[in-house]
Amino acid sequence: MAEAIEKKQLENIATWMIPIQETNLPPALKGVFFMDGNPLPDDCITMYNLEWDAQNQSLVLPVFAPVQWTFHNSILGWLLLRAAQLSRFAYKIQFEDEMLQQAQIIPFTFGLKIPRWIVNLTMSQDENSKNGDIWKRRNVWFGGIPRIGEYTLRRIVDEDGNYTPAFKDMLAKVQNDCLVIVNNSKDKTS
After folding, report:
1. Angle at 48 (CA atoms; ends 35, 112), nearest 5 degrees
2. Do the beta carbons of residue 33 and residue 156 sit within 8 Å?
3. Which of the chain's termini has less CB crowding within 10 Å, N or C?
4. Which residues of the chain have pLDDT under 70?
């Protein structure tokens, strides 16, 4: 199926970044998440429509897949989106156990795993958040340089399609227009 790039609005993200197929995704991972503090030109992700591997407590999140990721409506956003498409950039999120408190994030580009000595990515639920509403994304580069590119994932749309309190905060921090990869044959409304 051919993919295209469309401009969408974050103010109505709950109407278009939605589950299309049931994948047994755990409740802590359902919804739409804002990458608060992300220095790159991308803002929101969803793990909907991805195959959850219950036995291994993991999933693969392809940045290039339709309606999984939002990018800034800018030249830098467009370049990052195109780079993700060309390199088939993806993350494998491998949780430590069924509690889904800690995860190792393994990046892949051109189908190849990026070694941990280059970048060691982790994700952990904030101990004060309920059921996965807040996650801390940590990065260690080249075996010892921490904190570059770290951010907080905040759930902005819950699994019932309702906006959370973090939604208004997200809208205040980002531009409303965003770029999204879509299937060409899908409805083109936003």
Report:
1. 75
2. yes
3. N
4. 1, 185-190
